[in-house]
Amino acid sequence: MDERNLRFGDHALVVPNPQQFIDRIASHLKTQGINGRADLVEYVDDKHTGDVGPFRKLKRFAYQSEWRLVCYNGPSGVRKIVIGSIRDISTIMLSKEINEKITISS
Predict the structure, then answer these.
(1) Which of 22, 29, 86, 94 could form a disulfide with 34 if both were Cys (CB 3.0 to 4.6 A apart)?
(2) Rounded CA gap, 71 and 5, in Å?
(3) Considering the entire predicted model, what is its pTM?
């Protein structure tokens, strides 16, 4: 994790199998009749002048490696996505310990 992400807080929620998290969100959206899209953010050149949209951000923010969920229909206003507890698929740890304790392999 890029050290600049430590500015977001002292603790981080880690979801080792993100597909389980995504499946729970998708299930809730389906029961509510809400169309949504989830994807990683694409980072475009900082001098970019075209469309940005919900899945594009300037390259200077690429260290965030952001994932977003966008809902396209359903009730207007603030949305609350109720997926229940995620204690079984996540863990909370000190942000400064992530790079020491987590390895990513392909």
Answers:
(1) 29
(2) 26
(3) 0.74
